[in-house]
Specification:
binds ligand LLP, nine-stranded mixed β-sheet, eight-stranded parallel barrel, alpha/beta, 21 strands
Length: 422
């Protein structure tokens, strides 16, 4: 068995290995559930984007929200990444890795005063502004500090990302961005405000997008605006196309990083104005999604009438994507018994909700209690969205590098969960 989307998983010896480390050995040493990430995969994903941009001014940012662990941020920082943040907490994480704030873009629809001040004082590369009200708030705070805030307007291009409605952001009906038709007037206003410096244009149309068309449609909308702005004397320095490139969870065939960047580059490099602009991206899922898995252990098999359930020790508090977006994650046996026929199971967790499922109708060859299963493509929006629901401690995070393993966040203890409460 091989997983083309996760080449760092090796099953050649009949037992799954993450790079060179056996998953049963990890489970024995660190317990389950456990997040397992591959250094090799993180670096390779990064290189796929950066290599395609050689020779043109560009900044590939990592969208911290996808997986905010400091060790993961550090891998991208060492590789030369910029960072896309959406909160003061994410700013603090990025600065803690030693990344200069001038490589950080600040997105998000609800930036608070305190967050804006922290970002101004740190000196971020750009605020991706989402409303007129936010623009004025940034201007006032920057004036108060005697600074000029670099700003870019996040334009809502009214493009259908053809993704799950909860993760599509580029339609007029979504809360995100400034309507395409209002952007010009707001740019003019911004260029007259004393606390602002207009530096860019930005959009982000959604996540897990597996076709090129929505991105090209959004880019074309931005380029129209870039032309009009230039004709009115508003000259930009960068164009930020956001993130959103999808990955293979099951049978999706998204453009590869090289194909994606190639198509965008072709359009930018042949455009009279855009060819001089720095191209900025904010990739989350496509950098980390297939670089991680969630290792879990079977607790019980049970049958309710016709239906068979595999009750495992991971749950919706660990990985909420199936419950929240009907997200599909491949689930595989870590050491499949070759002689056993597969049966269909709903893979569910111990949380007291019917929504607590990780996979439905999955063909698995289970031996019995204590079997190990790997939930694949879980590096993005897995641990990052996990919670303590049902008073379950968050799982350990492990980073594998060839034959070595590092605990990059220990398993929470019940004591640590209770500690802050009165
Ligand atoms: N930039 C902005 C402004 C964003 O809001 C996002 C993601 C990204 C970049 C990165 O998008 P990516 O390259 O990862 O698609 N929790 C959901 C995904 C939510 C995405 C939110 N915004 C999931 O598990 O599918």
């Amino acid at each position: 068995m091989t997983f083309t989307q996760m080449p760092w998983i090796d099953c050649s010896a009949g037992v799954m290995h993450a790079e060179e480390v056996s998953l049963p050995a990890l489970a024995a040493q660190f317990g389950t559930p456990a997040w397992v990430y591959s250094t090799q995969a993180l670096r390779a994903n990064w290189r796929a984007f950066s290599a395609a941009l050689v020779g043109r001014p560009a900044l590939v940012c990592y969208a911290v929200k996808a997986n905010a662990n400091l060790s993961i941020l550090r891998i991208f920082a060492e590789a030369g990444a910029g960072f896309d943040i959406v909160s003061g907490g994410e700013l603090a994480r990025v600065l803690a890795t030693g990344v200069p704030a001038r490589k950080v873009v600040f997105s998000g629809v609800g930036k608070s005063r305190a967050e804006i001040v922290a970002a101004l004082e740190a000196g971020v590369k750009c605020f991706n502004v989402e409303s007129a009200a936010e623009l004025h708030r940034i201007n006032t705070l920057a004036c108060g500090l005697g600074l000029r805030a670099p700003v870019s307007l996040r334009v809502n291009p009214d493009v259908d990302a053809q993704s799950h409605p909860y993760i599509s952001t580029g339609l007029r009906e979504n809360k995100f961005g400034i309507p395409h038709g209002d952007a010009l007037a707001l740019y003019r206003e911004a260029s007259d405000l004393p606390g602002l410096r207009v530096t860019g244009i930005d959009c982000h149309i959604g996540s897990q997008i597996t076709a090129m068309e929505p991105f090209m449609a959004a880019l074309n909308k931005l380029l129209e605006l870039v032309e009009t702005l230039a004709s009115q004397g508003i000259v930009l320095e960068h164009l930020d196309l956001g993130g959103g490139l999808g990955i293979t969870y099951n049978d999706e065939t998204p453009p590869s990083p090289a194909a994606f960047i190639g198509a965008i580059r072709e359009r930018l490099d042949t455009h009279p104005i855009a060819r001089k602009l720095e191209a900025v991206f904010e990739f989350g899922r496509s950098l980390v999604g297939n670089a991680g898995l969630l290792l879990t252990r079977l607790e019980y098999v049970k049958h309710n009438g016709e239906r068979a359930f595999a009750v495992v020790d991971a749950a919706m508090n660990d990985l909420i994507r199936p419950a929240l977006y009907q997200g599909y994650h491949q689930i595989v046996e870590v050491a499949p018994p070759p002689d056993r026929p597969a049966s269909l199971y709903d893979v569910v967790g111990p949380v007291c909700e019917s929504g607590d499922w990780l996979g439905k109708n999955r063909a698995l060859r289970l031996r019995g209690n204590d079997d190990l299963l790997a939930i694949l493509s879980a590096g993005a929006y897995g641990m990052a969205m996990s919670s303590n629901y049902n008073s379950r401690p968050r799982a350990v995070e492990l980073l594998v590098d060839s034959g070595e393993v590092r605990v990059i966040r220990p398993r929470e203890s019940v004591a640590s969960m209770l500690q802050a409460e009165v």
